[in-house]
Amino acid sequence: MSTIAHPAPRRLASFALASVPGNERVALDQVAASVAALNLAPDRLNRLKTAVAEATMNAIEHGNGGRPDLAVGIEVLQSGAEVVVTITDHGGRNDEGWSEDQAEIPDLARKLEGQQDPRGWGLFLIRHMVDAMDVTTDGEYRTVRLTIQIGPAPQGPVSGSCVPGAP
Question: What's the rounded Cα separation, in Å, for the pair 127 and 112?
Fold first, then answer.
């Protein structure tokens, strides 16, 4: 039996930020700087930055409850033709019985009619900005793992439209 050797991921950046509003901008700027040498296409880079900002805001607000004493940890790795960004907060203790699949899919019409909370776009947006998103919990920590291909985006339709009747 033969095995294919995969290179170990290369760490491009690792940092922690206080859980204060506005640090999502610091996160997206630092992630963008860390992947600059990879020459991501501008649209891919913008999608990654948007996903990182949204995931960091969620970590600050929901995972760490806006407590400045609890840091959000961010790591940027390159693994072959992928960039992987992990955002870790202290929200694992709040994940009991929660699953990403249980998150309500945003419906613009229902939101405008007041039938759905106007917030709640974060996970939906993140999921559609990157090639893969995983959420894991380990004890008190929750980690959102964002993966984006360095090359062109995979072709195919975008699924999960939030507008009723849209393709």
Answer: 22
For residue 116, what are the CA distances in angstroms to 106, 119, 128, 167? 8, 8, 20, 21
CB 67 within 8 A of CB 20: no
Sign of the dihedral through C-alpha 94, 27, 121, 156: negative
In total, the chain counts a number of residues equal to 167
CA terminus-to-terminus distance, the chain: 45
| Alpha carbon separation from 160 to 52, 106, 133, 155 (Å, rounded) | 20, 10, 14, 16
Between the alpha carbon of residue 83 and those of residues 4, 23, 47, 145, 146, the distances in Å are: 20, 21, 12, 10, 8
User: 3-state SS of the chain: helix, strand, coil percent to 5?
Assistant: 35, 25, 40
Q: Is 0.90 surpassed by the pTM of this model?
A: no
Domains and CATH numbers, the chain: 10-149 (3.30.565.10)
Contact (CB, 8 A) for 73 and 40: no
List, for residues 83-138, the tens digit of each pLDDT value: 999 999 998 876 544 445 545 665 556 545 666 555 556 677 888 899 999 999 99
